[in-house]
Amino acid sequence: PRSVAVNISNYHIYTLEMLRGKLVFKVDGKVVYEVKKGDIEYWPFDETSYRLMIALSYGGTWAGSCGLADNSLPQSIKVDYVKYYRLKKNVMIKLAPFESCTGCTACMNSCSHNAIVMAEDAEGFIFPHINGNKCVECGLCMRVCPVLNTPIITNATKPNVFAVWSLKDRTVSSSGGAFSAFARNVLEADGVVFGATLGTNLLCYHREIHMIEELEVLRGSKYVQSELRDTFFKVKAYLKEGKNVLFTGTPCQVDGLYRYFRRNYDNLLTLDLVCHGVPSNTLFHSYLLKLEDLKK
Predict the structure, then answer these.
(1) Quick one: CA torsion of 272, 274, 277, 280, rounded to 10 degrees?
(2) Helices 251-261 and 231-240: angle between axes, nearest 10 degrees
(3) How far apart are CA 286 and CA 122, in angstroms?
């Protein structure tokens, strides 16, 4: 420990910073003591919850070994404020601007350090957030971002255009039932199909199915932003196993999937749709609540 001369009649700023495997103690911004994980036998500071106790210690082996005069009592400690804050590195990573990000999750799924999480904003749209303490600034998340990079255009100059509908599935689909036709072909070959569904709480998210009998949960238009979560990671795992995979979603989700892979897979089939933008799950649920109020 390094001693610091302080005037105890004045206020001072005492700081304890908890870093990965290390505690740093400061007085008025100057480091006075550090303790590392290997320096002590028991290290309880990897837990996620703590209690902060501020006390005026008297006696003991530290100050007590120097001798204390009983006539110095009573003593008191005055605390002006206590501030809790989360340390952040000066991360140089710059993801897509707020107004351009589509929440495709390519950046999150590509980060092997789990430094990126997807979180809702005030309107319920999902955006990536970087944990500066975990980020190593490798830049992979920026390289896979569809917004930050030139679009991958592999279409022919004059692509072939077809009109498709499935007579078997039209009556149980929102439009022509084309998705069901493609999905049935993949499932019959022991493949996997990924698409958007509405959960029991009407939350829209992507899930996988393995049987034709499960097609019903993926049919129909959702008109709301789907939570992808770790879907890209799962798709990649199945592709590496050699399974045929069908992924269906909005154009930005499909683009994000290809960016995340950074290579082509012959056993991957993707379907997207003409999209004019999607509302958030939060907005959708606000609409449902309004409908409930109108029925009362």
Answers:
(1) -50
(2) 50
(3) 13
Convert the pLDDT of each residue in 110-158 to its tens digit: 999 999 999 988 888 999 998 888 888 889 999 999 999 977 677 777 8
Alpha helices (H) in 133-280, listed in sequence order: 140-143, 178-188, 231-240, 251-261
CA 113 from centre of chain: 12
Can you tell me the distance from the alpha carbon of 65 to that of 171, in angstroms, rounded to the nearest whole number?
87
pLDDT tens, 226-270? 999 999 999 999 999 999 999 999 999 999 999 999 889 999 999
**What is the rounded radius of gyration, in angstroms, for the C-alpha atoms of the chain?**
28
Give the ranges where the chain is alpha helix by DSSP (H). Answer: 106-110, 140-143, 178-188, 231-240, 251-261, 281-295
Cα–Cα dist 236/192, whole Å: 11
